[in-house]
Write a structure and sequence with these properties.
The chain is an alpha+beta fold. It has a domain of 69 residues. Helix content is 39%, strand content 10%. It contains 8 helices and 7 strands; from the N terminus they run βαααββαβββααβαα. Strands 1, 2, 3, 4 and 5 form a 5-stranded antiparallel β-sheet that branches. The protein has a two-stranded parallel sheet with strand order 6-7. Strand 4 and strand 5 form a beta hairpin. The chain is elongated. The two termini are 57 Å apart. The C terminus is likely disordered.
């Protein structure tokens, strides 16, 4: 079931995806948030893979990577796959990118640059998350889990973010330097075929799709277009001029 997101907000997943693309424009794949935890980088793996089995609680090599050189415990990075494989390392790097995106989100929330609320799943109420929430020792865990305690309640709610994404900017007006180009291409087109004013306008806008050709610019272009001698104006030209 898809999580409901109130109007004006976006999910934590979508927020991290947006920030990830800003941080890693050419590397972010959109699959980073599904990367498993507990993986290790190739350098770390090469350093410890041939270590002999550890002996005793204080012996070198005991703890997190104990016996990785010979066996795979259920909680070891090796149990998640072959650390020397390309797919394993790709997933490891994806997880690191996701960590960076979560760290960036926490910094933006703590600095007040982004606003988060906590959605109560039982009442539907939205509780604004204070900036000091992101200074707590468990702030990173809350962001990773996507949940935070609801003030005055014994249960947690979903963290959602006030929509901060900038809508697509409108196309810029056609630069004055390009008006001469518009006049030229329109003049050449009209030498081939007869066009009404409305068709001329459509033609110019289609030729410059990356710009917004203003009405004032259209009038200026029309004023510069000369009707060939001996060619009478169409009624539609006279009507629309």
């Amino acid at each position: 079931m898809t999580e409901f997101i109130p109007h004006g907000y976006i999910s934590l997943h979508e927020t991290l995806d947006h920030l990830g693309r800003e941080l890693f424009p050419s590397e972010w794949t959109g699959q980073e948030q599904s990367a498993r935890t507990g993986l290790m980088g190739i350098d770390e793996w090469l350093r410890i893979k041939d270590l002999p089995p550890a002996r005793g609680g204080g012996a070198p090599g005991c703890g997190r990577f104990q016996n990785l050189g010979t066996t795979s415990s259920a909680n070891s990075p090796q149990s998640l796959g072959d650390p020397s494989s390309d797919s394993y390392q790709m997933e490891y790097r994806a997880g690191k990118r996701c960590e960076k995106a979560r760290d960036r989100l926490r910094a933006l929330l703590e600095g007040g640059d982004l606003q988060a609320v906590i959605l109560d799943p039982f009442t539907g109420a939205l509780h604004r998350a204070a900036t000091n929430l992101w200074r707590r020792w468990d702030a990173a865990r809350m962001i990773k889990k996507g949940e935070a305690p609801i003030p005055g309640r014994s249960h947690s709610g979903s963290i959602i973010i006030k929509d901060f994404r900038v809508p697509d900017a409108p196309a810029k007006p056609l630069p004055a330097a390009r008006i001469a180009d518009a006049i030229k291409v329109l003049q050449e087109e009209m030498a081939k075929k007869s066009l009404t004013r409305s068709l001329q306008e459509d033609f110019v806008r289609e030729k410059f799709p990356g710009y917004r050709v203003t009405e004032e610019q259209i009038r200026k272009i029309f004023q510069s277009i000369k009707v060939p001698l001996g060619r009478p104006k169409k009624k539609s030209d006279a009507t629309e001029a």
